[in-house]
Design a protein that fits this description.
The chain is of the alpha/beta class and about 375 residues long. Helices cover about 40% and strands about 10% of the residues. The strands form five sheets. Strands 2-5-8-1-9 form a five-stranded parallel beta sheet. The protein has a two-stranded antiparallel sheet with strand order 3-4. Strands 6-7 form a two-stranded antiparallel ribbon. The termini are far apart.
Length: about 375
């Protein structure tokens, strides 16, 4: 795929094209980062096609799609008899990409035990097939891609720092489709013509109201989602005017725009985790453990986001009263305690989420 096939003229996409121009002529490693569906492999192919290696192979490997036990053999190859089932010598992806470009997609899913071996290959440009002691010299340009935050994975020791710095020589960050809405009409027209030709149809009109819906949709699946929606629209179109199930797309859009800020996303994630743990905060299986937070930190975050588990209201209690008294009576379910010779039986789960208490309940409880 040539660089001319890249569609878009928005400012953010032009910045991506400029970075392709800068890095393509050299052999430095490239790290492409972006959400799923933003076209990371297309950008990797564009780098290859604009480089002096364009006449040599472009080999793609999805590190998440190959089982860990087979990935080393897939990358470096193996000799006959190297392991059970190795009935013939096999050339790995690195050797297949010799003098060309190797694209390592989903690099964040590369197993930790394989990362030192990949690092050595990148440093020395030499491989040894499994079951062989012979070193093979290679000339490969490596482009990696991920939709994960690799630097954060490095900090949590889920990805090696030395491998990260080896791969991240020249980073390219792809903007999500919602940040390049000016490009959507061009992409829609491209996909309509592409799928119309494939299906033997002639579609020469895209209604303005349909284009408006497509432009203002948030596209959480980015270009891949847009492509699928357009292909579906072409399938159901019976004449020269594009047809689209607008109601379905708008309903999806309404559901996907609920979270707008980082605080909204944090609150939604905490609530989802609490619901998944039946609103248990502490303990090995509690929400704090699942979120990787100290119990007290999670409680503080819940107070800041005003997260509490709804309980049945007292008959004399109104929603307005609950809202008014929330901050003053946000108290934890008490633990078991002794009162004289009697012991007050508490719920078995003492780490359940803070619950809302009303003045009426506190009076009834004698507190």
């Amino acid at each position: 795929m040539s660089k001319l096939d890249l569609i878009g003229s928005s400012e953010k996409f032009r910045a991506v094209l400029d970075r392709i121009d800068m890095v393509a002529p050299v052999d430095s490693a490239v790290m492409i980062q972006g959400e799923t569906g933003t076209g990371k492999e297309v950008i990797a192919q564009a780098i290859h096609q604009a480089s002096p290696r364009r006449h040599s192979p472009f080999v793609a490997v999805n590190c998440a799609a190959i089982p860990s036990a087979l990935l080393e053999s897939e990358l470096f190859g193996h000799e006959r008899g190297a392991f059970t089932g190795a009935v013939a010598q096999t050339m790995g992806r690195f050797q297949s990409a010799d003098r060309g470009t190797l694209f390592l997609d989903e690099i964040g899913d590369l197993p930790l035990d394989l990362q030192p071996k990949l690092l050595r290959v990148l440093q020395e440009m030499q491989i040894e097939r499994l079951g062989s002691g012979r070193t093979i010299q290679l000339d490969v340009r490596v482009v990696a891609a991920t939709n994960q935050d690799l630097w954060r994975m490095v900090q949590y020791r889920k990805f090696r720092a030395d491998l990260y710095f080896r791969l991240n020589v020249f980073p390219i960050t792809l903007p999500p489709l919602r940040e390049r809405k000016d490009d959507i009409p061009f992409l829609v027209e491209h996909f309509v013509q592409k799928f119309a030709r494939r299906q033997g149809k002639s579609i020469d009109c895209i209604p303005e109201e349909i284009m408006e819906v497509l432009v203002y949709h948030d596209w959480p699946g980015n270009i891949r989602e847009l492509q699928n929606v357009v292909e579906r629209a072409v399938i159901i179109t019976k004449g020269p005017v594009l047809e689209l199930q607008v109601a379905e797309l708008m309903a999806h859009s309404a559901g996907s725009t609920a979270i707008k800020t980082l605080a909204d996303a944090e609150r939604a994630h905490i609530v989802a985790t609490l619901e998944a743990t039946n609103w248990v905060i502490g303990g090995r299986h509690g929400a704090a453990t699942q979120l990787g937070l100290p119990r007290t930190t999670l409680i503080t975050m819940m107070q800041r986001h005003r997260i509490f588990r709804e309980t049945s209201a007292h008959p004399a209690e109104t929603p307005e009263l609950r809202a008014e008294t929330y901050d003053r009576f946000f108290v934890p379910v008490p633990r078991a305690r002794s009162q004289g010779s009697c012991s007050v039986q508490e719920p078995e789960d003492t780490d359940r989420v803070y619950q809302q208490s009303s003045p009426a309940r506190r009076t009834a409880g004698g507190e």
